[in-house]
Amino acid sequence: xxxxxxxxxxxxxxxxxxxxxxxxxxxxLFRHHGYAATTxxxxxxxxxxxxxxxxxxxxxxxxxxxxxxxxxIQVVAETVRQRVDALPADATARxxxxxxxxxxxxxxxxxxxxxxxxxxxxxxxxxxxxxxxRKIRRDYADYWDRLLEDALERGELRPDSSTAVIRLFVIxxxxxxxxxxxxxxxxxxxxxxxxxxIVFDGTFVRE
Length: 207
Fold this sequence. Notes:
About 70% of the residues lie in helices and about 0% in strands. The longest helix is centred in the last third of the chain and has 27 residues, at about 125-155. It starts with a helix and ends in a 6-residue tail after the last helix. The protein is mostly helical. Helix 2 (about 15-35) packs across helix 3 and helix 5 crosses helix 10. It has a domain at about 60-200: Tetracycline Repressor, domain 2. It has helices spanning about 1-10, 15-35, 40-45, 60-85, 95-110, 110-120, 125-155, 165-175, 175-180, 190-200.
């Protein structure tokens, strides 16, 4: 008899689609309302499930936060690496950075809630959550540093340049496009070309 009761009360198997929907809705709510103001009940309601059912997929709100933050970086990092890895072995450093810019923008703008949530709420979240997420952010920053250091070693970057400052400036500028980019005002490729031109050649005509 006890065995039968246990079987009836055991949680259902993890539903990947439901889990992903929870993460997506959590990212959207975090993005628009902030981390502290978003409740698990709101996440559950937006996901179309009962409040208690959320615990079949996640142990806590902090776990959901961690996965939203990680996904916001991972989708961008994976797209960047794919774009750069697709280049021929003899690609110039400029071509590699150009591919990284396109990959970053693609990942960013096609997964807006995750990436925007990452950008908007990072300053609001508990220190413990930041510490857990720091490694994945550092790994992505290191990848860009290697691209820029390679450009410097090849003589394709100004010798007085700080690769750390360039990386912070470029990634910071790219990240905020998620807040103002409008796909109805031109193609994605034209947008990428304009961003690349600004990064590589600036905005003022040379005297």
